[in-house]
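re: the backbone from monday

yeah here it is again, tokenized this time
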């Protein structure tokens, strides 16, 4: 429930912010010089209204902005919005994990990294272990997990 609420909130914020970057015919008729460049370009690229497109084209030319540059600007804005959404989703995942002990502790399922001193090796080494049994497992089971030794601290071979 918490995940879908977070995702929905993020999508709503991004939708409203991108929608706010468009221009209407009435805005163009009243004070076209007050419409931001980003809103002009987004509307120029997205509108099907040929009259509005002509008004925006005229305003872009008046400002010395070549209309062909609008496609790249809109693409860059969309990429930035996608990156922002990814950061927000990662932040939400980290918050959920910090409240639900996703990456550490001694829960009895999954795998975790263990750091220990091997008697036949010099220095410390890392190995993947099953949380249920404590037995060593292939390292691919721990791929993507943070290397924190909080499941078996101080455990030796």
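seq for it, each position gets an aa:
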């Amino acid at each position: 429930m918490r995940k879908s609420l977070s995702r929905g909130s993020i999508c709503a914020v991004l939708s409203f912010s991108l929608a706010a970057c468009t221009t209407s015919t009435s805005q163009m008729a009243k004070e076209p010089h007050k419409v931001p460049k980003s809103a002009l370009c987004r509307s120029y690229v997205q509108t099907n209204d040929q009259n509005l497109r002509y008004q925006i084209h005229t305003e872009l030319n008046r400002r010395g902005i070549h209309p062909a540059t609008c496609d790249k600007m809109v693409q860059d804005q969309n990429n930035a919005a996608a990156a922002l959404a990814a950061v927000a989703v990662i932040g939400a995942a980290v918050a959920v994990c910090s409240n639900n002990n996703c990456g550490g502790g001694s829960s009895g399922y999954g795998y975790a990294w263990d750091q220990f001193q091997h008697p036949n090796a010099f220095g410390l080494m890392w190995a993947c272990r099953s949380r249920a049994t404590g037995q060593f497992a292939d390292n691919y089971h721990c791929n993507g997990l943070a290397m924190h030794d909080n499941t078996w601290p101080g455990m030796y071979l």
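DSSP finds five helices and three strands in the chain. Strands lie at 111-117, 124-130, 136-137.
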